[in-house]
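job 3f2a | input accepted
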Amino acid sequence: MLLAIERADSAVLGGTLVAALLVPHVVAAPVVGALADRVRHRRLFYATTLAAYGVALLVLGLGTGTLPPPVLLALAALGGRAGPMITGGLTGLLRELVPDTARTRAYSLDSMTYNLSQIGARSADPPSPECSAASPAPRPPPSPSARAAWPPASSR
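job 3f2a | predicted structure (156 res):
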């Protein structure tokens, strides 16, 4: 989104690209999940879908501001169909990659790292300037005598 604002001077394009990338996750998840369970060469299927997602993101990043918006939106929608393989799909490979004796631990670690990454991603985002300016947090004045008068009479 920030790339679209910087390169195309359009927050609308940025938001639409994010939606075009994420909405197919929901729509495609059941289909992609069923395909992943039925394909003969699962690792190849996973590698192909992950590569397709990566290529889509790369072209979106390089093409934002140069390619026409309809092309970018179509690419985001196509790339977004591979998204479920990143979020939940990789967990499905654990049964092939991890021995039975270590599988419970592997699923626990997978769940923990996914949840921590989501928490970390949310807490690492600084508040937008608009948010910060719109509702500044009240702070007590620094001097002890001024703190005695805090909060101001208008907010008591």
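job 3f2a | The mean pLDDT is 79.
job 3f2a | closed
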